[in-house]
Design goal:
Oligomer: single chain
Strand order of the largest sheet: 7-6-5-9-10
Radius of gyration: 19 Å
Length: 283
């Protein structure tokens, strides 16, 4: 089995200080290291529960990575890893964005130290004010014919206007590293709009979250993916996926208002950009 580091990781843990990072193989699988201090155990518990939960409708399952169990991986000190579907396996030039959801990223049972750590990080971002923050993104630059990724530390400090700018850059065709140029949002309608676009998928998720009480998705992310290789011919093949479930807890019959509120806010941001792009196109 040939394993390598993923090429287009935009957020999350990476190999560092002797700790293994995520890996991918050539069979469409993604290997995520089990996190310590119960987080790995919680994530496995969620995947096993979700995979066997017959009350989750099929049209919602498609928004979650396929779970293939756990496996000890050679070359990573035999570390146990969660084996998942590689969401980018069928993309050749993907643009990817990671959006951490919720105005609160800590969970009620967390230690005071962990809560304070999250509060400090949340306060420096749009988490509290907007109910989500952009953790990272990478976009294919059609002018430079290369991938462009902003510094993650800079992203953590952006305000609401910065979020709008990032969402426009994510669907633009002009040179993105040039901070003086205005993003053209050329692919907004292809990626965000249409019957198979990001907005339609987010709205379908919203309908489910307005009723589901099985899980509370603390500190979970929405991953947005689209293809640049064939965007002019076959469309963007936009995908919305939920990832990172190390802090998921039982819903106990209560709606997950923290995630739902962030989702509604994010939907409004995407809709505004889509509408402003339509207006600029008409003009």
């Amino acid at each position: 089995m040939h394993l390598k580091a993923p090429e287009h990781q935009v957020a999350g843990h990476i190999a560092k200080d002797g700790k293994p990072g995520p890996l991918v193989d050539d069979k469409g699988r993604f290997f995520k290291p089990l996190q310590g201090d119960s987080r790995g155990e919680i994530e496995v518990k969620f995947y096993e529960s979700f995979s066997s939960n017959t009350e989750v409708p099929d049209h919602i399952r498609r928004y979650f990575p396929v779970y293939h169990g756990t496996q000890a991986v050679e070359g990573s000190d035999g570390a146990a890893m969660i084996v998942l579907e590689n969401l980018l396996a069928k993309y050749s030039k993907p643009s990817v964005m990671d959006v951490k959801m919720g105005s609160r990223t800590w969970y009620p049972e967390a230690s005071e130290e962990y809560i304070q750590k999250c509060l400090r990080k949340d306060a420096r971002s749009t988490t509290v004010s907007s109910g989500f923050r952009i953790s990272g993104f990478e976009v294919y630059d059609h002018k430079e014919l290369s991938f462009w990724k902003p510094d993650r530390k800079l992203l953590n400090g952006i305000n609401v206007d910065g979020v709008r700018l990032a969402l426009r850059k994510f669907v633009s065709s002009n040179t993105l590293s040039d901070t003086s140029s205005k993003p053209d949002s050329a692919f907004a309608s292809s990626v965000y709009g249409g019957s198979k676009g990001v907005l339609t998928q987010l709205l379908e998720l919203k309908t489910w979250f307005e009723n589901q009480t099985f899980y509370h998705f603390n500190s979970c992310s929405i991953l947005i993916i689209y293809e640049n290789e064939s965007i002019h011919d076959d469309g963007a093949r936009a995908q919305v996926k939920l990832v990172d479930f190390a802090h998921v807890h039982d819903g106990n019959g209560v709606i997950d208002h923290n995630f739902l509120g962030g989702l509604c806010s994010f939907i409004n941001f995407v809709r505004d950009i889509l509408q402003s792009s339509d207006v600029s196109t008409e003009n």
